[in-house]
Amino acid sequence: MRVRLAVGLIGLGRLGRVYARDLSGRIPETRLVAVADPLGSLAEDVAAEFDVPRHYSDPLSLIDDAAVDAVVIVTPTHTHRELVLAAAARRKPTFCEKPPALSLGEVAAMQDAIARSGMFFQMGFMRRFDAGYAAGKREIEAGRIGTPLVFKSTSRDPFRPSLEYANPKSSGGMLIDMGIHDFDLARWFLGEVRSVSAIGATIAYPELATVGDIDNAVASLTFASGKLGVVDLSRSGIYGYDISTEILGSEGTVRIGYLRETPLMVLTKNSVAHDTVPYFMERFRDAYTTQLQNFAQNVLQQRTPPITIVDGLEALRLGVAATRAHESGVSVSVAEITG
Amino acid sequence: MRVRLAVGLIGLGRLGRVYARDLSGRIPETRLVAVADPLGSLAEDVAAEFDVPRHYSDPLSLIDDAAVDAVVIVTPTHTHRELVLAAAARRKPTFCEKPPALSLGEVAAMQDAIARSGMFFQMGFMRRFDAGYAAGKREIEAGRIGTPLVFKSTSRDPFRPSLEYANPKSSGGMLIDMGIHDFDLARWFLGEVRSVSAIGATIAYPELATVGDIDNAVASLTFASGKLGVVDLSRSGIYGYDISTEILGSEGTVRIGYLRETPLMVLTKNSVAHDTVPYFMERFRDAYTTQLQNFAQNVLQQRTPPITIVDGLEALRLGVAATRAHESGVSVSVAEITG
Amino acid sequence: MRVRLAVGLIGLGRLGRVYARDLSGRIPETRLVAVADPLGSLAEDVAAEFDVPRHYSDPLSLIDDAAVDAVVIVTPTHTHRELVLAAAARRKPTFCEKPPALSLGEVAAMQDAIARSGMFFQMGFMRRFDAGYAAGKREIEAGRIGTPLVFKSTSRDPFRPSLEYANPKSSGGMLIDMGIHDFDLARWFLGEVRSVSAIGATIAYPELATVGDIDNAVASLTFASGKLGVVDLSRSGIYGYDISTEILGSEGTVRIGYLRETPLMVLTKNSVAHDTVPYFMERFRDAYTTQLQNFAQNVLQQRTPPITIVDGLEALRLGVAATRAHESGVSVSVAEITG
Amino acid sequence: MRVRLAVGLIGLGRLGRVYARDLSGRIPETRLVAVADPLGSLAEDVAAEFDVPRHYSDPLSLIDDAAVDAVVIVTPTHTHRELVLAAAARRKPTFCEKPPALSLGEVAAMQDAIARSGMFFQMGFMRRFDAGYAAGKREIEAGRIGTPLVFKSTSRDPFRPSLEYANPKSSGGMLIDMGIHDFDLARWFLGEVRSVSAIGATIAYPELATVGDIDNAVASLTFASGKLGVVDLSRSGIYGYDISTEILGSEGTVRIGYLRETPLMVLTKNSVAHDTVPYFMERFRDAYTTQLQNFAQNVLQQRTPPITIVDGLEALRLGVAATRAHESGVSVSVAEITG
């Protein structure tokens, strides 16, 4: 019989419930042994639905549970620090969703705790596990496009978030909240960034200005190597969820992403049409599953984590740099962003 | 807690193991309580891997097992009749993979048994559950293309089967073995077929001629309504697995299918390229899962089966008609195919 | 200064006027020295518009004109024989639009006249000069798809012709009128055809039945080499003009054709859409020009014609065979079609 | 007979010869009555090839020629001012290729001369006449995407220019030489620009640094309306010539551009591939013709020019602003660029 990792899952919101299904039934390497959510009845329901033996309203109790060998954290960002510190205290292998925290200071504290305990810690950036992004990375490493020179990435949500969610005090603002994925990809594909400039505006949903957020932005990146990058973000990609990335190299280019959800074309008078991708869950469902499976395999086989707290820290730093560049109107040196 | 259907699974080959994962972990409405395979050690291994409480080398024992509320049959075609008859004797709701059998006579016997027992029986034609085919059906029913007029369908495997598999004595020959899916779709989209003509040849793999099979074929269909259809089949779609269907209507057309597996484009000197779909499991994995989920929901909610033994019978009849049309060189009236 | 061929153009309908522009201004190797049309005022107008020195209402006078070195015939099909015979009598290099004639007997007479006079004669099948078809041919000849095995071709008009045009007495019926292009391509790509079967129906425009024509059809081809082909035709491709051809080979496949006219995509809520090709002139305009240019170059450089009267004859024979196969319901041996 | 504009063409390089063909044979509204090039033998050859009655080595003599009713200038940029001033002195309707000049001061002088003489003057920006760009404009004006919010444009050459050409002293540098098209489109689609920031690097062709040019760049635009824009440019689009533009609006988005030249797909083992567009002449040939035809129609029908010297001036101003933003590393206010 296959050896399985006994996982405890903290956070049972929309993504948390998807993780519950993944950990309990779709990933051969895991067994879901406990779930926790401050809303105790939710924990109880999810436990019943997926045959999970234990459920908690207190996440710390789950971390303490001796039956739990590894922890998966998919809670609101402001709770990440406390939970990671608790897991570090018990040296339980931990997977934590992005972003690591909302301030560089908090992430530094998490980084310290992880380093001191020597625990296994894997940061969640699911795009790296998407079939398209993974294949793009392989093609580049195989030399198919020569030397990578320019990084371009676009992220568009099909509608705006709630004003409560969008509030930069909790989300960090669009350049952090949405941009962190693209900034992580920028580092993954082309290495560290030296400076960032950015423009942004509240032009699609004026009401977002009431909470201090923007809805469209462009950030330009100059890498430490001298290479160039550009990220554009939008909350108003009304046609559908659209995530696409290009790495232009000296011998070719790779383009990652797709716009079509269903294998159906409808051709009517003078028109050929297909649908689009509704939202992130449809686009990245398989990537989420693959990411958790990768976490379990890493822990079971004692491999080092492919995405560390440093990746979370540096992507956040780029988001903070872009936010300041947008606010100040001048290019920002990434090295100067320290808090 | 959700009510689940206690399913027994018979047949643990490639597709059977996928079904084991689906039934044990991916489909909320099912619980996999028993597995059976003549190769007893395989049944034991699969049971261990998916935490299935019981395993059998004798499929009839699984059908007899009181803990098994419903049966899923994914065994070689020549065993279908005996298993369906046994399940009918116990009135256990049954799902059976296509084709129902290799002769019209065998199917008639199954049909009788099902009718007499009044059992729930659902035939497997997974394409009907594919997101593209399902969406195409909805669009047509919504009137998007006016009146459907012409059915076109192409099925291509990326390589030939083994000579043993291809032997018409066991496979029925390419026009039945591959064509049955397209013939089922023809009936689903445009209704009953009046006559069939067909041409075929062994031109890609001469060795297939040694067992009496062909590797490429074209069948033309005239529907009872006077509408037209054409199906082309190939074992030599070397570029990738390619399943596509078009329904041309009086106001437009729908095209179902896709050629691209990974959301990645590679652009090199004067070329834009992407990958293709490797094989049926990659193309229809979600459709297989959805189909089994539909079966479980139908049984639990006492709905009538969307695909019956008659659908299996009639699709097989078209395959037999096409085979005879190819062999004789003349158009064959479907109504005259009775055994 | 470049040597130019002094061309006389007969027939000034829609396509004829396009040819007038091509011959007078777009093709470096030609000079348009005379135009003719039974409607004399039209000939006069076209001559004025394109600065053509001479114009005739009698085509035979144009052929007789000593200033005319070569003749381009783009008149109604039933006039082809007389004009080709007249040109043959004067041994003037001649280009004639497809189809060569409406009966095999007429074509045989033209073939005899051409052979006896030893004149240069080039048959018009513009698809062979389309960038896509030409590139497909090159790729196949370069071995990119291994051995060609199966030919598939689809032709769809975006609307039906007038009842007057559609009448099989003048058009030959859809399997000849539309199919002749696909039959020519079949021969060009895979060689001679041994037998043809066909089905057809009047299902989109019932009024076509009043003149005896059909509006949708499928023809299956078995080549002399044993390879297979299928052609499907429709007058009801309501979404746009759609011409596509595939040659499936042992190592790959080529697909020729496109559906998109303008380089514009419009993405709105849940939809990605583009336009389609309006009609044959938009799709094949460049091919028509290239074909006439090729004719002029062939004459000037004394090259043999790439498409001969035999190509016209054999494509017509396939159309006649398909028509008879459709009418009789049985497969027709091409060799038996002699008149 | 159609009234035609008697055009004199100055400049017979690569594009000039294409214009010679357009003006002499492809555009019904024009007659090419004179050509001029400092290389007199070239002028003589082109005149012979296209049956042009007069040819000059001195462009000013062509402008003086009483048979010349309108002038088309397609000479090196540094000569534009003198030629436009000469045409203005004679009030001859003039079409001049972009960019108008290499310095804002020179353009101001041209602007003055045009205004004083009251002559008809049309600036060349052929992309506005491309079927895709024109259709995109129409769709936006018809409200298909709601309010335009974000402008994105990409221009990529498939190889670098010669070092001589690239030298910013003659080309203005990449942000002007290539960017001027995208900056013109930015203004056309979203109006005036308030500020520009830019990054650039010499990362693909180090040798370009020896003449002071870059090979990749990103410019961010903030429009006067508060809307956003981004332009990225590359000399190393090695896969093919790639021009694409998107306008994201509140209700949808339009994407203009295409990557495929020939209507052919080649599918081989696990790959689907097509070709790309070789270079600007293949991509915009029809746009060039349409643009000249538009010029002739405007003059003949006394319409006002759709693209004026102000459009040339402002697009150049954005190029200069972007160049300075790149050099200084700070955002540049467009209004401050005055010389």
Radius of gyration of chain A, rounded?
20 Å
N-to-C order of helices and strands of chain A: EHEHEHEHEHEHEHHHHEEEEEEEHHE
Oligomer: homotetramer
How does the helix and strand content of chain A classify structurally? alpha/beta
Question: Biggest interface in this structure?
Answer: A-D, 37 and 37 residues
Describe this structure in words.
- The structure is a homotetramer of 339-residue chains.
- Chain A has 339 residues and is α/β, with parallel strands linked by helices.
- Chain A is built from twelve helices and 15 strands.
- Chain A has helices at residues 14-26, 40-49, 59-64, 80-89, 104-117, 131-141, 163-166, 168-171, 174-177, 179-190, 280-300, 309-328; strands spanning 5-10, 30-36, 54-56, 70-73, 94-97, 121-124, 148-156, 193-201, 216-223, 228-234, 242-249, 252-256, 264-268, 271-274, 332-333.
- In chain A, strand 4 (70-73), helix 4 and strand 5 form a beta-alpha-beta unit.
- In chain A, helix 4 (80-89) runs parallel beside helix 5 (104-117).
- The model of chain A has no long low-confidence stretch (mean pLDDT 96).
- The interface between A and D is large, with 37 and 37 residues.
Question: Topology, pairings included?
Answer:
The structure is a homotetramer of 339-residue chains.
Chain A lengths: L4 E6 L3 H13 L3 E7 L3 H10 L4 E3 L2 H6 L5 E4 L6 H10 L4 E4 L6 H14 L3 E4 L6 H11 L6 E9 L6 H4 L1 H4 L2 H4 L1 H12 L2 E9 L14 E8 L4 E7 L7 E8 L2 E5 L7 E5 L2 E4 L5 H21 L8 H20 L3 E2 L6
Parallel strand pairs in A: 1-2, 1-4, 2-3, 4-5, 5-6, 7-10
Antiparallel strand pairs in A: 7-11, 8-9, 8-15, 9-10, 11-12, 13-14
Helix pairs in contact in A: 1-11, 4-5, 5-12, 10-12
